[in-house]
Amino acid sequence: MHALRNLIREVLSLPNGTVRPSRDNGAFTPGIVIVNDVSSESLGMRSDFVNGQEVISESIVTLISIHVFGKNANTLLNKFRLALRTSHFLSGIKQMHACVYRYSDVRDLTTGIGATKEERSQIDVYLMHNFSIQTDLPAIELTSIHAQAQTSKNNIITINNEVNQG
Asked: Are strands 19-21 and 32-50 parallel, antiparallel or unpaired?
C-alpha cells in the first residue's frame, strides 16, 4: 500500500504527507487524500510443483477506496481518474505486479458542516494482483492412513490404506 500511495501522490503532483492510509492517527484536514484497502476477493487458486516444491498462487481483486478532503476535491479525483490511464501510472502499477481491473465514477460527497461546506470526493479502484507462496516441504507422493475405532462391544476395528497422491 505504501508504494501505491506514493504512486498516487506522484501522478497528482502532491507534496509528501498528503496521501495517507485511513489507519493513520493524523486528522482528516483539508488537502488530505486517504487511501484505504477495503476488501480482497479471490478469483481463483492453483497449486503447482516446481523442482519438487509446491507453489500455491492466488489471483486477487482488491478494492481500494480513495477519499479526498478539501477544496477542489472533485476536480482532483477526476484528474486522478484520467491519470489511471497514463503510462506513468500503468508502469508503476506493473512494477507492483498488479493491474487496474476497473474503477468507479467519482462521487461528490460534499457536505455541510455548520455554516460552511466541506468538499469531499471518493473513487473506488479495483486492482488485480497475484499472491504466491513456495513451500520448502517436498511434495507428498504416497501417504499411509491408519484409523482405529472401538465398537460398543469392545471390538477394535483397524483400517490401513495407502493413498497415492501422484
From this structure: parallel
Paired residues of 125 in beta bridges: 64, 103
Question: How far is it, in rounded angstroms, from Cα 62 to Cα 97?
Answer: 13
Distances (CA, A) of 10 to 14, 15, 29, 51: 7, 9, 20, 41
CATH number of the domain residue 63 falls in: 3.30.70
pTM: 0.74
Q: Report the 10 Å Cβ neighbour count for 122.
A: 18
CA gap 7, 98 in Å, rounded: 13
Q: Write the pLDDT tens digit of every residue in 110-132.
A: 887 777 788 899 999 999 999 89
CB 132 within 8 A of CB 107: no
Query: Does residue 164 sit within a domain?
Result: no
- Report if residue 155 sits inside a domain: no
CA distance 28 to 13: 19
Alpha-carbon separation of residue 96 from 36, 41, 93, 100 (angstroms): 17, 18, 5, 11
